[in-house]
Design goal:
By secondary structure, the chain is an alpha/beta fold. Helix content is about 30%, strand content about 25%. The strands form two sheets. Strands 6-7-8-3-9-10 form a six-stranded mixed sheet. A four-stranded antiparallel sheet has the order 2-1-4-5, covered by helices on one side.
C-alpha cells in the first residue's frame, strides 16, 4: 500500500511563494488503478512527481509498505526509484541516438531483465526494434516509453498524461494496452489526466482543485478504452 499523509509543496519565495499542494492525504491499495483528474495548475502532476520520488515534498509523508520516502537520503531515493517505480512521461523522452531495442533495454538493464523483448512484442513493435525514435509515429513512441518503463519490472507505474499528445484512435489503443499489461503483470498504476472520460476505466478516481482533493470515488465496473467517450 502507498500511504500519503498531509503533503504540502511550495514553489517560489517571498511574495511569489505559491502553495501547490495543500495537505494531501490518500491511500492507494496494491494493484489499484488510480486516476488523478484536475485542470492545469490543480497540483496533480506535482503530486505524481512527489509520490514517485522525482521531487521532494516540503511537508508530509509518503509510505511504501511502511518505508517513508520523504525521509530517504539521495542515494536511498535513487535506489527506491530503480527498484519500485516505472514512469511514463507525456513527451516520451526516448534517446534519439538509440534504436527501439536499446531504448527499452535501458530500463531492463536496471534490473537485469533479459526478457525485455517480450514487452516490445506486447506493445506491437516487434517488427520495428531496429528503428529509431524519429522513424516512429507519436503513438509508437509512446508505446516504446511504456515498454521501457515496464522493462524494469516496477511495482508501481506512474503515467503523466500518457494520451495528451495522441489522437483518439492511438490514445484508445495505448490505454487498452496499458490496462491489459496491468492485469497481466499485476502492478499498481497511477495516471494523471485531464480527460474525465478516462476516469471511467479506473478502479479509483480523485479530482483535484487548487492543491486539494475535492472528490474521491470508486468505479464498481470500470470500462475498457473502447467503451468510453473521448
Amino acid at each position: 500500500m502507498i500511504k500519503i499523509e498531509n503533503l504540502h509543496k511550495y514553489y517560489g519565495v517571498g511574495e511569489s511563494k505559491n502553495e501547490v499542494l495543500k495537505g494531501i492525504s490518500l491511500d492507494i491499495e496494491d494493484g489499484d488503478f488510480l486516476v488523478i483528474l484536475g485542470a492545469s495548475g490543480s497540483g496533480k502532476s506535482t503530486l505524481l512527481n512527489i509520490i514517485s520520488g522525482l521531487e521532494p515534498a516540503d511537508m508530509g509523508n509518503v509510505y511504501y509498505n511502511d518505508k517513508n520516502i520523504c525521509e530517504m537520503k539521495d542515494n536511498e531515493i535513487t535506489l527506491f526509484r530503480k527498484d519500485v517505480i516505472g514512469y511514463v512521461f507525456q513527451q516520451y523522452f526516448l534517446l534519439p541516438n538509440l534504436n527501439i531495442d536499446k531504448n527499452v533495454k535501458m530500463g531492463a538493464d536496471l534490473v537485469k531483465n533479459t526478457d525485455y523483448r517480450k514487452l516490445i512484442e506486447a506493445v506491437g513493435l516487434a517488427d520495428k526494434m531496429k528503428k529509431y525514435p524519429h522513424e516512429l509515429s507519436g503513438g509508437e513512441q509512446q508505446r516504446v516509453s511504456i515498454a521501457r518503463a515496464l522493462a524494469k519490472q516496477p511495482k508501481v507505474l506512474y503515467l503523466d498524461e500518457p494520451t495528451g499528445a495522441l489522437d483518439e484512435s492511438t490514445g484508445r489503443a495505448v490505454l487498452e494496452l496499458i490496462c491489459k499489461l496491468q492485469k497481466e503483470l499485476r502492478f499498481t498504476m497511477v495516471m494523471v489526466t485531464h480527460n474525465q472520460n478516462i476516469a471511467e476505466m479506473a478502479n479509483t478516481v480523485i479530482s483535484m482543485n487548487s492543491g486539494k482533493i475535492v472528490e474521491q470515488y470508486h468505479n464498481e465496473n470500470p470500462k475498457s478504452a473502447y467503451e468510453i467517450a473521448w
